[in-house]
Design a protein that fits this description.
This protein is an alpha/beta fold. Helix content is about 55%, strand content about 15%. It binds manganese (II) ion. Manganese (II) ion binds next to loops.
């Protein structure tokens, strides 16, 4: 474990200094003096010079990609945006999504914003539109790329304010990023997209399946799985996740990123322990199996809850003590005929939370006291 961490920190440090000197034009003048100084410090020194030289418009130089941090599709979307356009990634989960957008919206240097693989729900969509419309008023270029179920009125509203919307529920986000910007990407980017599609169960879709044909299936499967385990196992290590974004943007195969396979082995062992715990702790209702997860991620356990309960829907939830909420993961089997993402979106917002996603895989944020109600109501709404 120690060895894993060490080499990682070294690499991250290296690549992040590279980043400051290489990518951001504004920082250049500052980098000479102190390469370590942050952007905040930078403003102090550059502003006086800049203001006299250039119009305020040209102060906007930053490109930021806000993407989903919890899976390979989000991380890989950020990586391909970085390869195509440069800039920096901000990785967030669903509960942190709006905070991140609010924060970048106040950044006066922001010129271009990409938002990837972050679905919207009834409770977030209005503020999302408002924030982006403020950005558009400031001439910030905004591109939203996603594949989660979305209210068509939201798409209309976004297009009206000239946000570029790339949205297709039939391909994962990274495949859509690849497809939209392949002229700016190298050949390896198609492999990154393939692996993301596998993680999202979408490698059989029209574009993704063509990409997968170019590679050996088992090679792509083990690469996607290794990435997934490294991402899931590093959710509390944001620097490592950003490092993965950089390595993928630099066209590294997962097996060329140090220690990823060793780390995946550790994750596999943890998952085996989760199976044992789910067998003990899982409960069932008529139409679903459910379980509160205490010592791992809910999304890592939810498939076991569904499978071991022998129901067509599984629910796993984990308390986020700092937020007073439960992070909930929901999965449906092939026999599940209802659109879980749509049901969960409605139900979560009725209970003062938010949620949504795909037909057979979705998530929600539910206020702590409402979790039991969420499960009983979901059980009622999915009767087959
Ligand atoms: Mn996705």
């Amino acid at each position: 474990m120690l060895a894993v961490k060490k080499s990682v920190t070294k690499k991250t440090a290296k690549s992040s200094t590279k980043k400051t000197t290489k990518k951001t034009g504004v920082k250049k003048s500052v980098t000479k003096k102190s390469p370590k100084s942050s952007t905040k410090k930078t403003t102090k020194k550059t502003v006086t010079k800049k203001v006299t030289k250039k119009s305020p418009k040209s102060l906007r130089t930053k490109l930021i990609c806000i993407s989903h941090k919890e899976d390979n599709d989000g991380i890989s979307s950020a990586a391909l945006i970085r390869q195509a356009f440069g800039g920096d990634a901000i990785l967030v989960d669903y509960p942190g999504q709006m905070d991140a957008i609010r924060q970048v919206a106040t950044d006066e240097k922001l010129k271009t914003l990409f938002i990837c693989d972050l679905g919207l729900s009834k409770n977030t969509q209005d503020e999302f539109i408002n924030l982006l419309s403020d950005l558009r008023k400031n001439k910030v270029s905004v591109t939203y790329i996603d594949h989660h179920d979305i209210d068509p009125n939201v798409v209309k509203a976004l297009e009206k304010i000239k946000v570029k919307v790339i949205h297709n529920v039939n391909e994962c986000t990274t495949v859509q990023v690849y497809d939209a910007f392949k002229s700016k990407l190298n050949d390896h980017a198609s492999f990154v997209a393939c692996c993301a599609a596998i993680t999202d169960y979408m490698e059989d879709r029209p574009v993704a399946s063509k990409l997968l044909q170019m590679y050996d299936r088992q090679f792509a499967l083990i690469s996607a799985t290794t990435m997934t385990y490294n991402i899931v196992g590093h959710q509390k290590d944001p620097d490592y996740l950003l490092y993965l974004v950089e390595e993928l943007a630099d066209s590294k195969f997962p097996h060329d990123i140090p220690n990823t396979y060793e780390f995946a082995q550790l994750q596999v062992e943890k998952l085996a322990q989760i199976i044992a715990k789910v067998k003990q702790g899982m409960k069932t209702m008529k139409n679903l199996g459910y379980m509160e997860i205490l010592d791992s991620g809910a999304s890592g356990a939810v498939n076991f809850v569904m499978g071991l309960s022998k129901k067509d829907v599984g629910v796993a939830y984990k308390e986020r003590v700092d937020h007073g909420i439960y992070a909930v993961s929901v999965r449906g089997s092939k026999n599940c005929k209802v659109h879980l993402g749509k049901i969960v979106n409605l139900l979560a917002s009725e209970l003062g939370g938010s949620g949504g996603g795909h037909d057979k895989a979705c998530g929600a944020v539910i206020p702590k006291p409402k979790i039991k109600k969420f499960i009983t109501e979901l059980n009622k709404k999915i009767k087959n």
